[in-house]
Design a protein that fits this description.
Layout: E1 17-19, E2 26-28, E3 33-41, E4 44-51, E5 54-59, E6 63-76, E7 81-84, E8 89-92, E9 97-112
Antiparallel strand pairs: 1-3, 2-5, 3-4, 4-9, 5-9, 6-7, 6-8, 6-9
Amino acid sequence: MTTDRVLTDDALATTLTVDGLHPADVLAGTPVASSTELVAARGVEVGVWELTAGTVTDTEVDEVFIVLTGRGEVTFADGEVVPVAPGAVVRLRAGERTTWTITETLRKIYVLLPDTEDPPA
């Protein structure tokens, strides 16, 4: 039976596609980012994203994510450091500069929100 209610029956085993990291964004190691979109509707996108061990920088979009597996930390340009581990739920705001230091391959469910807020100053 086909249903549009089940987006994936196992987010931990969902096949991902490698996303290219810009070499200038890689600060340490040889991290690989991968993802897959599960659904997009009404301006919201939900998917699975993964980053292997290493350190990368990013400019964020409006997002909420839930960590499924892995460990590390996200450092924000204002100096705040947020540990990420299974069960963590984190909010990112559009335009924020971050540094992701991943010590154990991190897999998360992400929810990209519609662009309704101004980026941080």
